[in-house]
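Subject: mismatched residue count in predicted assembly?

I count 984 residues in my input, but I want to confirm that the predicted structure covers every chain. Input:
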Amino acid sequence: MTVPLTQCLLRLIDENYTLTDYQSDIAPRWCTGCGDNGILTAVQRLCRDEQLPPEKTVVVSGIGCSSRFPHYMNAYGFHGLHGRALPVAEGIKLRRPDLHVFVATGDGDCCSIGAAHWIHAIRYNMDMTVLLHDNEVYGLTKMQASPTSPRGLKSNTTPRGALLDPLNPLTVTLGVPNVSFVAQAVDWIPDVLFNIISQAYHHKGLSFVRVLQRCPEFMDHRFDPWVQDPSKMRLLVHADGIQLKPDISRIYRNQETHDPSDLHRAREVASLTGEIPVGVLYRNSAVPCYEDLREGERPNTPGLIRTVLNEEFDKVTIWPEDDVTTEAVE
Amino acid sequence: MTTDLYQETDKTRTRRARSDPSASDSATAASRTSRANSAAKPVVTLKEHIVEIVSDSGEGAQRCGQSFGAIAARIGNGIWTVEIIPAEIQPPARSIAGTSGNRVRLASHRVTNGGDEADLVVAFNEQVLLNRLRAGEIKHNGIILLENKWQNDGNAAIAASYAQVREQVSSAGYRLYEIPMEEECLKYVPDPRRGKNMFALGMLCCIYSFDLDLAREQVRFVFRKKDEKVIDLNLELLAAGHAWAGANLDLKFAIPAERPREPQVVMNGNTALALGVVASGMEVCSMYPITPATSASHYLSDIFEKVGCVVHQAEDEIAACTFAVGASYAGKCAVTITSGPGLSLKQEGIGLAVMGEIPLVVVDVQRGGPSTGQPTKAEQGDLLAACFGGHGDAPKVVIAASSIEDCFYSIIMARKIAENFNMVVVVLSDASLATAQQPFPRPRFNEDWLAPPINQSPVPDGARPYDWDPRTGLSSRFIPGQPNGMHCLTGLAHDRDSHVAYDPDVNQEGIRHRSLKLAALQKTLKAPTLYGDDEGDLLLVGWGSTRGAIEEAVDTLRAEGLRASSMNLKFLQPMATGIKELLERFDKVMTIESNWCDSLDDELIAEDNRRYSSLALLLRARHLIDVDCWGDARGQPLKPGDIVRAARRKLEQR
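Triage response: the counts match. Full output below for your records.
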């Protein structure tokens, strides 16, 4: 049976998800100029390009400015507890490998109150895309130093300047066994940001993307030296990483060919001071995913439950005299 | 073949030892003890006895006790076993605090608790014996079977300590038997630390007139994962102990038993919890190791994968809870198992599940608190934390298991309630149920216990994620994968669309509906039935694991002609309708709990500052009735005798 071309086209349009299909009925309430907006757009673009069914897409977040993210996506969202996005996402993925899981978390959420979960999530290596929105400050609670704030930052809790060196989320992540994907992006190069998030999505395992994002409210001008001087940005290019479009390549001439399988070099690049590396630092597709390791071999059917229960009861049953029939016989 | 030969030998030896001790090998050793020989020892028939076996950690008293209990159960005796557990894995030898072992209460009738003081104790050294004496766990004229090797110990201090305890015990009226256990075992094994327990088991089997073949079967079962040599050696030791006791002890008891008419299963409370998880159809258990809850997860880890399910050991208690919340949100209701300190840490995750209306089962195997408290000891200290622990108004269901059997069925019930009401259900057990063993009728699997498959059908147009029923507060749950159901679940106050609430009325509305769900559940609950008469002078009210001890106390009080009854509450939140009417039928009401309450005997304590036991506080607040309380926070399972005394005092009060 042939179908008229127009009907085919209509059906195609009908089944095709567009950008608006991933936008919720709530307009983002982030500040004007907040880097979170760009990350949201990149993720929506990815969903559109990959044609992810919204009902099969779950965005999990913790608490903080960035964690408002799932409210603005038309997908299943889970805006949970401060620091606990990762264990929630793990629980979701364990029994539902059919779902596409994204995690939106901030530098306070991930690197401070949720630090334990962050380390262990890297180790579990479950197949999900984790976006660390790192603006180096607590925004929603009004300007306190975060673990990634630069030393000397004056904030409401560090009025005489932050005393400690910041934690480096890239080197920490690269130091955890089972790490399988680490990348860094910046909100002010949206094309590369999208490219990296796309690479992260396609990686099987936990892909950790730190996105440096500008906070116009509390950290205005923090990234100006890098935004204004492209030579201070080091773009990591590779056939297995990202490749730059000509127009971007012309602006960002400080490029390094970095093989993402080179963990040692990845750690060196992650430790750079002065320059901000952008690109895929590390990728290892051979690391097993926890959900695959834990996948049950047998389905949880009533018949199987009956059998296993009876097997266990048999081990501890006292039978009435001369009665050894079991109800396990089916 | 080898085993058959050994069995033959054993039987022969046993018979000889019994009929003519002087002719047997074992009888030669008998001359070393001063106790009377037993050629024609009378068998004393008993209704029940409480036996304890204690040793240093690692000497196998636990295994001996468990095996003894299992044999008694198979014969058809009612049993209840209690573990005596030191806090450390390898405590120093011969230390009072390091005492490890088991209490076995065996009776011709069903028993529901560990009972009062022990009638007979087997102790591998005098220090572990002191542990039991100082804890007041041995009857004043009780029988003590004590390893005698210490009397000639090379270390003068040890020999002196032994002599001192021997003197103390004998003069205090205990019936002391000094047993050359080590000496006898050395005939079979080079290191009697491994094997003495089976010798002791053999002695006990002889003393309590157990069938030795049944004992052999049990030993084979216990060592089923070991090789044949090990099994044979243990069987030899068992027979040796049996023969030695037959030849040298004037102790011969029989506790009439009746084989059950229905198949019975024997297990501890934590095993029952784990099997309940399997039977409930839950698919994910997320936990973090904590005493005394962990053994439930150990057992579950062993069997859960057979039904395609997962025990996830999370990085901490918070992750264990939130992992379960995530699993529940996207699938069938999940469970997290913990103990008191873990419950504290899980509170924020529990609050999230309450706010998001995600079904969740939380099992709390309570221990002594606060802080690290008493990890291996029993306490019912978490009731209020379970009901009101988190911040804000977070209504959740709290139920308590009252027996080993109830541990199994409580989980099945909890899963159903959690999923029907989209609520958190906390199941309270405690250390006294966790490791206690008791037979109960073998459950017959019922498919109705299981969770239905998750809904993945499209959500109808216009349906809202929190479409609260104005009468019951209930709403349906949209599960990821359901087309058209996309929404953002949030821990923030939210409206029916799961949008963040900015309007003051919206928060009020959400709280109202979450609260109404408890009332909707409460309307389905029946008033608890009373144990004893429906009216009288004193009603004892308890919850959870103390049920058996309280009911036994009521039996005793009623036998004395006192008008006492008892009530056990399974549902602590919500509480069933009709409880107030039941309380009002009694002149006095007193809760019996394994937790703290201030005593009015203390100088500073008066009615206006007295801190009541948890349940008493709940009952007083809800029913405006003068409910008194009696509590014990010593960490031991409540004893019926103590409850009887407390009840008598209450009845005597004017």
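Chain B has four domains: 2-14+41-254, 265-449, 456-524, 536-652. Marking this ticket as 'not a bug'.
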